[in-house]
Amino acid sequence: MGRLGKIDPSSYSQPELITTKHSTLQWKVDFEHTKLKGSVIHNFKVLENGLESIILDVRDVNVLNAEVISGNSSIPLNYFVSDPVEDIGAKLTLELPQGTAKGDLSVFIEYETSSNASGLQWLNPKQTLGKKHPYMFSQCQAIHARSIVPCQDTPAVKFTYNATVEHPRDLTALMSALIEKKDAGITTFKQEVPIPAYLLAIAIGDLVSKPLGPNSNVWAEEGIIDECAEEFSQTSEMLKAAVDVCGPYVWKQYDLLVMPPSFPFGGMENPCLTFVTPTLLAGDKSLADVVAHEIAHSWTGNLVTNKNFEHFWLNEGFTVFVETKIVGRMKGSKEQDFHMIRNLTDLQECIRTQLSNTPELTKLVVDLSNCGPDDAFSSVPYIKGSTFLRYIEELMGGPEVFEPFLKSYLQKYAYQSVMTDDFKNSLYDYFIGTDKKEKLEQIDWDLWLTCEGMPPIIPKLDETLANVSNQLALLWSTKTTEELVENAEVKQKISTHQLIDFLGKLIECKEIKDLTEKKIELLESTYNLKQTKNAEVLFRVMRLCIMAKLMNRMDQIIAFANSNFRMKFCRPIYRDLGKWPEAKPIALKNFESVKDQMMAVCSHTIAKDLGLK
Questions:
Q1: DSSP structural state of residue 328
Q2: DSSP-assigned letters across all residues of 65-134
Q3: pLDDT exceeds 90 at position 71
Q4: In the annotation, is 95 catalytic?
Q5: Going by CATH, does the domain composed of 464-610 fall within 3.30.565.10?
Q6: pTM value surpassing 0.85
Q7: Contact between residue 365 and residue 420 where contact means Cβ atoms under 8 Å apart
Q8: Which of 256, 318, 493, 549 could cross-link to 300 by cystine, CB 3.0-4.6 Å?
Q9: Residues 291/276, Cβ–Cβ less than 8 Å
Q10: How far apart are CA 103 and CA 47, in angstroms?
């Protein structure tokens, strides 16, 4: 496809020539035809004289009219859509009147989305928990905002927005903004902090809320609201810890929305309203760390944003780094380091499986000239990125030296979009006049940013908690089932996180002795796995069943794959099944039957994993 723009390879828009300052959305939600219908007014700042046209990103959007607004009058614009790129989008050209000068310019666009817009998911009442009302939600990251509004769909551009949404009277509408006014069937919203287009978000359903703290509520369908409030009861404490690490919270409200099971990610950091997967509802708060991650994004990603997705590690690596600090402040340094060690286990698995044929995507800074951000998505920017930051922190003298720098970096680039060089320059500017100057010279930037594979240096981490899971993985992989029955060590009490880590490490073992149904049954009875609600645990047990080629467990494996469409779980399950010749036809048949219930980003990547694209 080549690079679509100078600043962002995945966007046709030209932020070097024109940039969006504010957008006003007017939407009518049409559940019958699964479309958003309405308009947008973009207030642009034109950065050079004589601009001939405005280029916006679109994907399957039907533009009905475009006008320049000037005072009380408007001038119709000639417009056309061209240069479509599969799974990326197309170019909307708005031809401007001759002699358009630098400065402010407002454009009105009337349009409707396609009935299968890649950034929207429409559920019929049967697919919801309550079974009475439909539900709709969006997922715009990385480049799907262009499917719900013609826009500069690049994180290089940040804008404020207002929205007026018409929706069924008996449903609640929420957005990545503060609610300004609620009337029957009409809700208005206001986002006063500039955001990139990928943080535009909407959800409409039969939703209720419960308070989690002074500026925090959890929203969900009524059937699970109490469970959600209990699971995420530590949200305010996490927010407090994040403020301690990062500085003031600028978004005013921090709400959570627990999504339907087809939501493709663990969480999405939509400002004022984080979306989270229901697979976090483990009953013991053991998976609530995802909320710490999304809270951290309020600074790293939402306030200081990667300029394009080649530098995605500036969003996600920093966020995991802050997330581990929140865990450390709440649970102590042993848990903080164990969190990082578990992440490294996941990264190893990701590099071995998902990225085995695309080693270039294991670099920290990737080249997206011929690859969409959805196809490049992996745990590399998250875990390799956070490991790099932990390495720099240790090198500079630990948290008491590095955290003040982190705060100053976030303050310096607040409300802006950055590249890796901006971070590097900040680090040098901050430390160059101190006794840490020589330490900076030890950082091999080229090695960290461009080498493939695992992080080149793993910082020293406290392995107390990880040693238990390592030892268990060793025992279960090297001993027979009979030997394990008699072994007292396997019966020791372990935490949920140690169980998850041990099962993950077991999957990573090159060889597991005597991997039979009998051994898996012993595993299940020893750790009470048949009763567990924990999706992370179930996911790993299903993968072990596939490794053991237990065809009689196929219904259970498929049921888990269909119970949620979180990509972290369903992609590896489908990849594993795709490598098992007898199971592949079953996997393909099941995928064909459920793919229309998945969001586009999920069905697209699984189709690629299965070799269908």
A1: H
A2: EEEEEETTEEEE-EEEEEEEETTTEEEEEEEPPTTPPSEEEEEEEEEEE-TT-TTEEEE-GGGSSSSSS-
A3: no
A4: no
A5: no
A6: yes
A7: yes
A8: 318
A9: yes
A10: 7
**Which one of 12, 382, 527, 574 is the catalytic residue?**
382
Which parts are annotated binding residues for Zn(2+)? 293, 297, 316
Q: Is 18 exposed, middle or buried (0-12, 13-18, 19+ CB in 10 A)?
A: buried
Reply yes or no on whether the pLDDT at 458 is more than 90.
yes
Q: What CA–CA distance (Å, rounded) separates 253 from 272?
A: 5
CATH of domain 304-450: 1.10.390.10
Is 294 one of the catalytic residues? yes
Per-residue pLDDT reduced to its tens digit, 538-548: 999 999 999 99
Q: Residue 511's Cα: distance from chain center in Å?
A: 33
Domain boundaries, given as residue ranges, for the chain: 1-115+142-195, 304-450, 464-610
Tell me whether the CATH fold assigned to 304-450 matches the one assigned to 464-610: no
Write the pLDDT tens digit of every residue in 392-424.
Answer: 999 999 999 999 999 999 999 999 999 999 999
126-138 tens-digit pLDDT:
999 999 999 999 9
What residue numbers does the annotated binding site cover?
139-141, 264-269, 293, 297, 316, 566-568
Asked if 179 and 186 count as a contact pair (C-beta separation under 8 A), the reply is: no
Q: Any bridge partners for residue 235, and if so which?
A: none
Phi, psi dihedrals of residue 565, rounded to the nearest 5°? -115, 40
The CATH number corresponding to 1-115+142-195 among 3.40.1440.60, 3.50.50.60, 2.60.40.1730, 2.60.40.1530 equals: 2.60.40.1730
pLDDT of 439 over the 90 cut? yes
Q: Which residues are annotated as a binding site for a peptide?
A: 139-141, 264-269, 566-568
Report helix angle 235-246 to 289-296, nearest 10.
Answer: 40
Burial (0-12, 13-18, 19+ Cβ within 10 Å), 608: middle
Q: Which residues contact 197 (CB under 8 A, 6 or more apart)?
A: 140, 145, 146, 149, 151, 152, 153, 154, 155, 157, 159
Q: Which of 67, 231, 294, 393 is catalytic?
A: 294
- Cβ-based neighbours of 136, under 8 Å, separated by 6 or more: 29, 31, 34, 120, 121, 122, 123, 202, 203, 204, 205
